[in-house]
Design brief:
This protein is of the alpha+beta class and about 180 residues long. It has one domain (about 5-180): Cyclic phosphodiesterase (Cyclic Phosphodiesterase, Chain: A). Helix content is about 25%, strand content about 35%. It has three helices and ten strands; from the N terminus they run βαββαβββαββββ. It has helices at about 15-30, 55-65, 95-110, and strands spanning about 5-10, 35, 45-55, 70-75, 80, 85-90, 125-130, 145-150, 150-160, 165-175. The strands form three sheets. A four-stranded antiparallel sheet has the order 3-1-9-10. Strands 2-7-6-5 form a four-stranded antiparallel sheet, with no helix packed on it. A hairpin with a 2-residue loop joins β9 and β10 (about 165-175). It starts with a strand and ends in a 9-residue tail after the last strand.
Length: about 180
């Protein structure tokens, strides 16, 4: 497709959490387990959009700006291996309602605008390794990262010089939590 960009909506991870996760990953998995995702690329995808035109990007950004969603906490306290896709992941054992609602709204908007959405249920996760080549032991669930999510981001996936890089293009704030939202 001419003049398209490969885009997705995601949650950005604080740099401190990225660094802690990369250190935990190095301590718990062999270096040859697969292709590790760079620390700067660690994120939680909400809705993959695919290769889309500038016109469709503009429409989806306008819709994203209309979302009225409260901020929420994200807890990463589970891990697993998807053997078929060869992905080692980290995610929440129990996803918050705010996370599920935000992903569902973005996925529905994307689908209504012609962006294919997987029929599989949303499984929030952060990809740690791709192309996992061996069975790896998942550490006992004594790990836990938690942080407040105040915004969501539109990213572009770019492949240059043999590396994938995710570039933030736009951001939308979430409403601050009220007592009844906590």
């Amino acid at each position: 497709m001419a003049d398209t960009r490969r885009l997705f909506f995601a949650l950005e991870m604080p740099a401190e959490v990225q660094s802690q996760i990369v250190n935990w990953r190095a301590e718990n998995f062999p270096a040859e387990a697969g292709r590790p995702v760079a620390a700067a690329n660690l994120h939680l995808t909400l809705a993959f959009l695919g290769d889309i035109s500038a016109e469709k990007q503009k429409a989806l950004c306008q819709l994203a700006g209309r979302i009225q969603q409260s901020a929420f906490s994200l807890t990463l306290d589970d891990a697993g291996l998807w053997a078929r896709s060869k992905v080692l992941w980290l995610g929440p054992r129990h996803a918050s309602l705010g996370l599920i609602q935000l992903a569902n709204m973005l996925r529905a908007q994307a689908a209504r605008n012609g962006c294919y959405q997987s029929p599989q249920p949303f499984h929030p996760h952060v990809t740690l390794y791709r192309n996992v080549t061996q069975n790896v032991a998942i550490p006992p669930p004594t790990f836990r990262w938690q942080y407040k999510v105040h915004e969501f981001v539109l990213y572009e996936s770019m492949f240059k010089q043999g590396r994938t890089r995710y570039q933030p293009l736009d951001r939308w704030p979430l409403r601050e939590l009220r007592n009844k939202d906590k």
